[in-house]
Amino acid sequence: MKLLTAISLLFITLLITGCATSSIEQETHTEYQTYVQTGELSPVTLFTDTQGNRINLNSSQNAKLLVLFATWCPDSQRAMNALKGSDLNLDPNLDIIGIGREENKEALDKFAAEYEINFPLIADKDRSIYAKFANAGIPRLILLDKDNQIVKTIIAEGENPLMEVQW
């Protein structure tokens, strides 16, 4: 019984601390680091979504919002729900792309159906995309202008994850 209680307390503690970092990150990183700065070009411009479509950011003259998230993360789930219900999701001048950190196609397809996501999702199974932007912290919102220059990076934790998204 004590073991079950201890495990339950550990699970609740990990859930409360958020999903900004995995347990490995918590041991090795004490702060979030962002590897990209305002004014720099996006380090990644080519993607393949879960449906096999190639996405080239250079082919669009729209602003872009990259959403780096994880399906299991409550903050990411809140951010996706907020995004789904926002005017951003309907803006014809904004391309939204979700990048599932350490996610596979099957998990992202299930998440897209459950959350009624209508923008492309990219599986970043090995963090190769995420690692070009940051060391830890999800959800991360990366706002790009029409030329793919970084306008803003946001760690979108909390109750109002889209509060800082203005363009």
TrEMBL record:
Residues 1-22 form the signal peptide. GO terms for cellular component: cell envelope. Residues 36-167 form the Thioredoxin domain. Its main location: other. Keywords: Cytochrome c-type biogenesis, Disulfide bond, Redox-active center, Signal. One of its GO terms (molecular function) is oxidoreductase activity. The keyword Signal applies. This is TlpA family protein disulfide reductase. It comes from Shewanella hanedai (Alteromonas hanedai).
